[in-house]
What we know:
Blueprint: H1 2-24, E1 39-42, E2 50-54, E3 60-64, H2 75-82, E4 87-92, H3 105-122, E5 127-132, H4 134-145, E6 150-154, H5 160-168, E7 193-198, H6 206-218, E8 223-228, H7 240-250
Parallel strand pairs: 3-4, 3-5, 5-6, 6-7, 7-8
Antiparallel strand pairs: 1-2, 2-4
Helix pairs in contact: 3-4
Amino acid sequence: MFLAGFGLYMAYGAGMVALHPSFIYPFAQGEWPLPLTYEAVPLPDREPARLRVAMGDGPAVLYFMGNAGSIGLFGTSLEQHRRAGRTVAALEYRGGGGLTGWPSEKLLKEDALAAYDWLDAQTDQPIVVHGYSLGSGLALHVAAERPVAGVILDAPFARLCELMARASALPACWLPVQRWDSLALVNQVTAPVLIQHGGKDALIPPEQGERLAKALQTNGEQVEFHLLPKADHLDITSDPEWGQAVEAFLR
């Protein structure tokens, strides 16, 4: 009986390893519209990935969305920056929002660095990286590999594989999966960081954001952690305190 149960568990584990990308990247295939002020810009040598760009006179913000897959769903965050006069460049992920291709941790992180390099060539202004949920891993990756003026993280994870383990009852961080380990990047980040997390977030519990903040602080970085008690994972940017904290941080 034990051997039969163990065999079923192993088969389940193998199946989850094979299927796990579909859970990390459940990208919507439809394209939700953005205002015409956001120009679609192909990312050189990284097709099919592309940027949505609105030029401004202030600092530049490189934005990385969550795993909904269509940048039009994140207009609240983009408009927060555009209305303040900042240049906004948002990465559209391969495999979602009407784009072809297959996403992976490796490819998305390469796309994110290419997006920074493109934006850096377009502006003399300082660049801030801003990431939500899955995009927090990309924002931290860029901050670890490129010079940035600041890092804004909304509902970030410390290690995505831990959330996978919780959901699957498997030791995901020890399996051959895409781990998305943000904790492994903290000693390479040298910019001020703002982390905001919804107190009612059940998808990525606020404890994940708190652990990430403490790890960055231990590394000596200037870190602000704001818990928004009434917000959950999906409505964090609708909380008035979210926008106020973003503006105060960037000032």
